[in-house]
Amino acid sequence: MLAALDDMGELANTYVLITSDHGYNLGHHRLPSNKFLLYDHSLRIPMLFKGPGIKPNTTLDFLGTQVDLHPTILGLAGIEAPRVGPSAVDGQSVVPLLIGEAAAAPPSVRRHLAAAAAPVRDTAFTEYYNQGPWEVGKPHALDDWSNTYIGVTFRNGSHSWKYAEYDPYGKQSNFSSVYFTELFDLNADPFELANVINESSAELRALLHAKTRHWYGCVGATCVDRL
Q1: For the CA atoms of the chain, what is the radius of gyration?
Q2: What average pLDDT does the segment 195-214 reach?
Q3: Has residue 227 been placed in a domain?
Q4: 39: closest CA among 62, 23, 18?
C-alpha cells in the first residue's frame, strides 16, 4: 500500500492508521475468552499512526479513547469536529500530540494545528452495557447483566488507578443502583488482581466517583477534565 501511494506521489500527503479490535481474554481472571471487561487485557486497543510530520518510533503517553478518533481523523484532513450542537463530538483531537514536525505536515494539518490546542487529560472514561447473558457451554456464563459498568483510568503523576461502578440496570437507573465497585492500584497491581476499594481512602473514592460521573454525563465541549 505504501509503495502504491509513493508511486502515485501521494505518500507525503497521506496518513495511515492501523488498529485492531479490543484485547481478548485467554484465561485472564479465569475467563476462557472474549473481551467485555474493564481490565486492561480486555480494554486496550493498539493503534499506530504513520504520515508526514509524525516522528518515527515515538509513543504517545496519553489517555485516549475511541471517542478521540473522530476529531483526530477529521483534524488530519483539516476539518474541525463540532464541539457544540446536535452533532457535537465528545472526544478531542490528538493531532497536536502526533505531529512533531509541523513543517513536514500537509497544509490541512497545519491549519488544524493552528486552531487546535494539545489535549491534556488525566482520566480516560470507559462504559459497557451488557446485552444479556451469554454462555458458551453451560453452566458457566461468560457475561451477564451484572457486568454493566462505568469507570475511569486515572493518573496523576505518582499514582495510576482503575475504578468502576457496576449497575445491572445501567442507563435505566442512570447508574443510581450501583451494587459493586472495583478499584485497582495499577502501579502496585498491573494485572488488576486485588480490588482495594475497601482499603482506599474516602477522599480517593470521592474523587474517582466524581470523575466517573463527570465523564458519564458530559457532552461535546463539556467533555474536558476540569476536576
Answers
A1: 20
A2: 97
A3: no
A4: 23
What is d(CA 147, CA 44) in angstroms, rounded to the nearest whole number?
18
Residues 6+ apart with CB under 8 A from 74: 80, 81, 93
Number of structural domains (the chain) is: 2
Residue 1 has pLDDT above 90, yes or no: no
Is 192 domain-assigned?
Answer: yes
pTM here is: 0.88
Domain end: 56, 82, 115, which one? 115
Per the prediction, the chain carries an average pLDDT of 90
Model confidence pLDDT, tens digit, residues 89-138: 999 999 999 999 899 999 999 999 998 889 989 999 999 998 877 766 66
pLDDT for residue 138? 62
Is 180 within 8 Å of 163 (Cβ atoms)? no
Is there a single domain that holds both residue 11 and residue 95? Answer: yes
* φ, ψ (nearest 5 deg) of residue 74: -65, -40
Chain Cα centroid distance, residue 113: 22
> Is residue 78 located within the same domain as residue 146?
no
Same domain, 10 and 84: yes
For residue 64, what are the domain limits? Answer: 2-115
